[in-house]
Amino acid sequence: MNVGIHHQKGGKLGILLGTVLSTILLGLVTALYYEIFVGLWYDWDHDPNYSHGFIVPFMSVYFVYERWGQLQKLPHQPHLLGIPVLILGVAMLVIGSVGAELFAQRVSFIVVISGLVLLIFGKRILLTLSLPLVFLLFMIPLPAIVVNTIAFPLQIFAAQTASFCLFNLGIPVLREGNLISLAGSTLEVAEACSGLRSLVALLALGTVYAYFSQRQMWKRWTLVLLSIPIAILANAFRVTGTGILANYWGTEAAEGFYHTFEGWIVFVVAFILLLACGTLIGKIGKHSRRQSTMSV
After folding, report:
1. Is 253 helix (H, G, I), strand (E, B) or coil?
2. Cα–Cα distances in angstroms (integers) from residue 25 to residues 116, 117, 177, in the given order
3. Residues near 192 by beta carbon (within 8 Å), at least 6 away in sequence
4. Could you give the C-alpha distances from 244 to 28, 141, 162, in angstroms and in order?
5. What InterPro entries does this protein's entry cite (predicted)?
6. Has residue 289 been placed in a domain?
7. Which of 63-77, 127-141, 227-241, 260-274 has the weakest average pLDDT?
8. What is residue 151's predicted lDDT score, i.e. its pLDDT?
9. Are residues 206 and 154 in the same domain?
């Protein structure tokens, strides 16, 4: 009986020490990454492609809150593998600072936090926190080389799809690369119209929706992956709508407020399509489970 009480007190003391140590380290990490956080905030506020970054940390905190009961039941088993992970994160921060590579600096924060969790709390707790940690990647703007690699093919696809749709709607159209020539105007599918913004935002939103709407892992991954083609096609049809406005009412009608409003409408439609896909995916397997339950 005395041994059990002593073990219980020792366990509580270990949890308390681990919590205090993790709080101190988290404060040190926050101070270390203060300027990087300020830069992130600036990008969220000034780059419309990543305005959703304001929401991402709150969603990650919610994911942690949702797992809080499960985390309290898991044993704290510090793992030395957290040391090399922590060293890797610090190395990414140093190399990113020397090379002025913001993406590496910002990703290093997630790596450092992962290393600390593994070092202090162990593998099982790190695995439980994997979704909140990985989800933080959505708040980090992609490096320019990745944006340029992804954006241009998206521009070409949007221009091709829009030209095809406009031609079949009886609108004379000529496409040269990412330029769409109409009877009285020429539209350029610029980088801002590539759909990268809606792609990243819908991918983040699709991840949240898949997590809450589906229970099986393969269904969650299917829904997350479906958000990619939905976002790409939605942007292509948005460009088509812009072409229709420009053809009948001039380029002024396709710019400014109407252009922004059209983008929001198309994004809402894309999310509705994602909701419909989630509903259909959720129904897969339900009929067979009902039959097996009835037969039993």
Report:
1. helix
2. 8, 10, 52
3. 48
4. 55, 32, 10
5. EpsH-like, Exo/Archaeosortase_dom, Exosortase, Exosortase-1
6. no
7. 260-274
8. 84
9. yes
Give the residue from 246, 262, 253, 260 showing the smallest Cα distance to 173. 246
- Beta bridge partners, 174, equal 181
Contact (CB, 8 A) for 123 and 82: no
Hey, how many other C-beta atoms are within 10 angstroms of the C-beta on 221? 13
Domain extent, residue 93, equals: 2-141
Write the DSSP symbol of residue 279.
H
Helix, strand, coil percentages, rounded to 5, for the chain: 80, 5, 15
Q: 63-78, pLDDT tens digit by residue?
A: 999 888 888 888 888 8
Polymer length in residues for the chain: 296
Q: What's the pLDDT tens digit per position in 140-198?
A: 988 888 888 888 888 888 888 988 988 888 888 888 888 888 887 788 787 767 778 78
**135 and 154 assigned to the same domain:** no
For the ranges 50-64, 124-138, 197-211, 246-260, the lowest mean pLDDT is seen at 246-260
- pTM for the model stands at 0.76
The two tokens of residue 89 are 């994160």
Distances (CA, A) of 270 to 162, 276, 277: 17, 10, 11
Hey, is 180 helix, strand or coil?
strand
| Chosen domain end from 87, 122, 141 | 141
- For residue 262, pLDDT over 60 is answered with yes
Furthest-apart CA pair in the chain: how many Å? 90
Helix, strand, or coil (residue 240): helix
Structure token digits, residue 114: 């992962």
Number of structural domains in the chain: 2
Residue 45's alpha-carbon distances to 53, 146, 148, 222, 263, in angstroms, are: 9, 21, 21, 31, 19
Which stretch of 191-195, 220-224, 275-279 has the lowest confidence by average pLDDT? 191-195
